Amino acid sequence: MNIQQVTTVTLAHWRLLLMADPERAAIMRYLPQSTVWEALNATGELIGILVLQSHGAALEIMNLAVAPAARRQHVATNLLTFAKHYGNRHHFVQLMVG
After folding, report:
1. Which of 46, 57, 61, 64 has its CA 20 to 30 A from that of 96?
2. DSSP secondary-structure letter at 54?
3. At 98, is the pLDDT very low, low, confident or very high (cuts 50, 70, 90)?
């Protein structure tokens, strides 16, 4: 699995975002101030999404979703581990789930 930063949110990303947070308006409010990461499988297929937002010394997970076909394959665990390591590398002292 490859986790990489998203520069342009596509329809495929939106499908995953709306699985975790079905209120599009809420996503539209937090997305511009957030960093979006995607998980891709070995063939480059989008299988997960992670949205992080900083609040001072805290890092908040705003959205995390896994494609139905990729569930039970540790995708969410890998995204959470990524968020933890990202927070440590960038000196955040707290990781929150929003």
Report:
1. 46
2. E
3. confident
